[in-house]
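does this look right to u?? adenosine-5'-triphosphate version
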Amino acid sequence: MLTITDLKKAYGRYHALNGLSMTIKDGALYGFVGPNGAGKTTTIKILAGLLSADSGQVILDGVDARRERQALKGMIGYVPDTFGVYADLKVWEYMEFFSACYGLEGLIARKRCEVLLEQVGLEDRMDQYVDGLSRGMKQRLCLARALIHDPALLVMDEPSSGLDPKTRKEFKELLQELNGEGKTILISSHVLTELDQMCTDIGIIDQGRMVLSGSMGEIMARVERSDPLQIMVYQNMDQAMAILRSHSLVGSIAIKENCLSVEFTGDHQDEALLLQQLIDADVLVRGFFRKQGSLESLFMQITDHEDKEVLLYEGKPGL
Ligand code: ATP
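got this back:
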């Protein structure tokens, strides 16, 4: 298990990480999402041992990054956001070079390289120069290289950027396959839709802090609750507002296109009871529904710092 606690990192006066905390369970396929500049690469570089944090703790399976930096490096496979492949090497030379970096040589190294190249679908490219590989193939080669030492955690920084949709899909399937075999994976992206279909867990980082994290199930439940109830009142608006304002599960209330948009943390039963309460109070309701939630809209809500709606009533911070 990876535990990051209160991680801080500044570049000069700029604070890229402001007390980031997160946990990745063994076997997770963890989507690390945030807008540009949120601090993803900084976090990943600290994990990979390429940057030092100013303060905070990183512990992977009991190994503390600050005390045992070298040991931690050996437990992490890192795929950077740039390929960094050596163009004038053949595929097998490239793999053997990195095997040697991890102390693997001879037959054991050759066998390991063969297994990995087969896993990423490059077994027929052993004798080809790295330079001649397509972008997607280079990405898969980087992945194979990162797995040479059978790391406890595979960390990938925006691995899909620059790949066409088909190659991206194939790459995702490959990661899911690896994860299915038990590999714990952290994958970063600034595009949520890149990850939400494939991940078991999601962490959303913004301005150097974790703003939302959990299993996909938890996050999707949160998505459902985060989208406002839309209540269209035909008659008796004052009474409707009085009921909503005094309701313990109602947060803010906004009006948009003659429809009340109500922040409501209740479940389906609470929704039904609220509707009943409105009807019993002679409020004529001509529409009552939850706006269709999506993880993308929640992401935008969390990471968009401008309030676009006209707030009628600033209620309890329910969510
Ligand atoms: P992106 O999705 O654009 O790659 P990111 O979430 O990976 O962004 P980081 O690269 O970690 O974000 O950067 C976080 C912040 O720190 C940004 O504002 C960036 O400009 C700043 N930053 C990153 N590296 C440096 C550096 N070497 N010197 C100064 N500022 C830096």
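Residues 165-180 form the longest helix (16 residues). idk if thats expected tbh
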